[in-house]
From TrEMBL:
Occurrences of domain HNH endonuclease (ranges): 39-80
Keywords per UniProt: Endonuclease, Hydrolase, Nuclease
GO MF assignments: endonuclease activity
Domain of life, per lineage: Bacteria
Name the UniProt record assigns to this protein: HNH endonuclease
Keyword match Hydrolase: yes
Length: 331
């Protein structure tokens, strides 16, 4: 794949090739009585299987009231396993930003390593309190610039479980009349022992970290390919979901329809959602303006095909401060 730093996309590049299908707000408007519900993942119609609230987007990305009326309790518990890995992958952002999840703002603790105390973050009244203990390896202190650089070591996660968490969100917001496109992927999602039907398809995730914008509540949007002059056979079956949470924007892709094999003769056109526009203040009464590339939000490319636990993708974050003081351990 080409280096993403050389693929700065314009908004038109994405929107000329994709059309919006639905989003988490629209999907949450459906509220069928329990005796009329059908789980879109396993097909259950038993009304006693709909006692818990199923969130379209996991609350680990932020508290919200976007609920699904087509996810049964059993499937909800199954997806919780994947979402534990998504939580570890997401890392310290809710704690740093003071974003409440299911009941409160969570306390973040980095993974334990030999001879190294884990870093803890507890948010108190909107201010993150960071405890390092005797860990002198994971931060750099610059008093002159009033800047603290911290390497937050995230707990281990299974990459494919993270990918399946985003796939579950995409299926949750997909309209009923378009679910047929996800039939093969639903079978793969629900069978823990099965392999993805397209062996050579990369589970690509784009993650943009914003510098000026913050979303207090998460939301997701599903896009299907537009009917365009794009003749690439791979693109016509490539759906994408964009998820906004905190200062992060995630985008990943899914091969849809029954034939999930990819044509290896053609590259797979992964058109990036222009998340950086959230950090740009558009001048008034201006049809065109230039934005320096160095000012764009940080974009990262991650491949999520692995099915074993990994300890990578740690978060290197720069924080400004006014003063430093000693404090007791975070409970």
């Amino acid at each position: 794949m080409k280096e993403i730093e050389k693929q700065i996309a314009t908004p038109n590049t994405f929107f000329n090739n994709y059309r919006k299908v639905s989003d988490s707000i629209e999907a949450a408007k459906s509220d069928k009585p329990k005796n009329q519900r059908t789980c879109r993942f396993c097909g259950s119609k038993n009304e006693t299987n709909y006692r818990t609230k199923a969130h379209i987007i996991p609350e680990l990305l932020g508290a919200h009231n976007h609920l699904s009326d087509s996810e049964c309790d059993l499937c909800n518990r199954i997806f919780a396993e994947h979402e534990n890995h998504l939580a570890n992958f997401y890392g310290p952002f809710n704690s740093l930003l003071g974003i409440r999840t299911k009941k409160k703002v969570p306390v973040f603790k980095s993974r334990n390593e030999q001879y190294c105390t884990s870093i803890s973050v507890k948010n108190e009244n909107g201010t993150p309190r960071i405890f390092f203990g005797d860990n002198l390896n994971d931060f750099k202190f610059d008093n002159d610039r009033k800047r603290l650089t911290i390497n937050f070591k995230k707990k281990s996660f299974i990459p494919v479980a993270v990918y399946k968490s985003f796939l579950k969100m995409a299926i949750s917001i997909c309209p009923d009349d378009s679910l047929i496109h996800f039939e093969s992927l639903i079978k793969w999602l629900m069978d823990v022992k099965s392999k993805h039907p397209a062996n050579q398809f990369p589970f690509l995730l784009y993650r943009t970290r914003l510098t000026k914008m913050k979303f207090d509540k998460p939301f997701a949007t599903l896009y299907f390919p537009s009917i365009t002059s794009n003749t690439n056979p791979n693109f016509s079956r490539l759906a994408t979901i964009v998820v906004h949470a905190g200062i992060s924007v995630f985008q990943t892709f899914f091969l849809i329809d029954e034939n999930l094999e990819i044509d290896t003769k053609d590259e797979i056109p992964f058109y990036k959602y222009p998340a950086y526009v959230h950090d740009i203040k558009t001048p008034d009464n201006c049809e065109k303006f230039e934005v320096p590339i160095n000012s764009l939000s940080k974009l990262k490319q991650i491949i999520l095909n692995g099915d074993k636990k990994v300890d990578y993708d740690d978060e290197l974050i720069h924080l400004s401060f006014k003063k430093v003081r000693r404090s007791k351990d975070i409970e």
